[in-house]
Amino acid sequence: MNKQELAGMVAEQLAMPRDATLAVIDTMLDTVTAALARGEDVRLVGFGNFVVAARKASSGRNPRTGEPMDLPACRSPKFRVGRNLKVACNNVD
């Protein structure tokens, strides 16, 4: 499912125009992105948590050339699955 299909399904369930639903989804995603950029966690109870994790600097290899390279420290977004989502995925018929 892509964002357009999601907007169509939500619009149908809520009897809203698809364009308005798409605007709501875009606004939600922008808000989550902004919160994560500020280093905040986003908790959606039952669905899951979006968190920012710090990664230490490390060394690695360029997969194309095999040259060693230094990977800088960075912050990386992660998603931790909530209980309701995990149960729903395991109870698929």
Automatic annotation (TrEMBL):
The keyword DNA-binding applies. Pfam families: Bac_DNA_binding (PF00216). SUPFAM superfamilies: IHF-like DNA-binding proteins. Keywords: DNA condensation, DNA-binding. SMART domains: BHL. One of its GO terms (molecular function) is DNA binding. GO terms for biological process: chromosome condensation. One of its GO terms (cellular component) is cytosol. It comes from the Bacteria. PANTHER family: DNA-BINDING PROTEIN HU, DNA-BINDING PROTEIN HU-BETA. Belongs to the bacterial histone-like protein family. This is DNA-binding protein HU-beta.
